[in-house]
Sequence to fold (216 residues):
Amino acid sequence: MNQNAVYVIGAGGHAKVVMHSLRRAGALVEAVFDDRSELWHSAFCGAPVLGPIERIVDMPSLPTVVAIGDNLCRRKIVERWNFEWFTLIDPQAVVMPDAEIGPGTVVFPGAIVQTGARLGRHVIVNNAATVDHDCTAGDYVHLAPGVHLAGKVTIEEGAFLGIGTAVIPNIKVGAWSLVGAGSAVVRDVPSGVVAYGNPARPRRARSDDDHFGPKH
Fold:
């Protein structure tokens, strides 16, 4: 088997982008796995969809990417399955040598991760998002396209920042909060809320109906 071979979990829109970045990085997508039975035994972006996620345990061991945008979905998969998680940095991303990147994290084209930044496990730094010096992003964080974090920002576990959000220096966004697209975050955001606006303000508690990115 090719030494650059990987598996991909997920066969939706987010996975399409992941697949292209994997190939640009020199990886070979050996197979795709998705729990939606209508996709089994079909092709997805040129790779076979072999079945549900549990099928991986019967396959030869390979590094695996969770290509699902929703933070809660990624966490559930990672907590259930003890696979070797593949860290993906697109060749057109810029990551400083001393930045810390956790396993399973994906950094997309045009993204910049600056010196001293620390990204946890299974973080998504989407297209053209920037993470300035000494920022911290906890496990399962998703920074949507065009998000900009100034220096020394802390984004706690599972938070989702919508497209085009800007965060000024030294701000903290609490765990599992959602910040709406285009927001300007100039004050700390507590955990477990939905916040948006310019300036961003907490509007309500997060509910089970709120999604942390695309679910497929």
User: Anything to note?
Assistant: The chain has two domains: 5-80, 88-202. The chain has a mean pLDDT of 96. The helical segments are 13-24, 71-80.
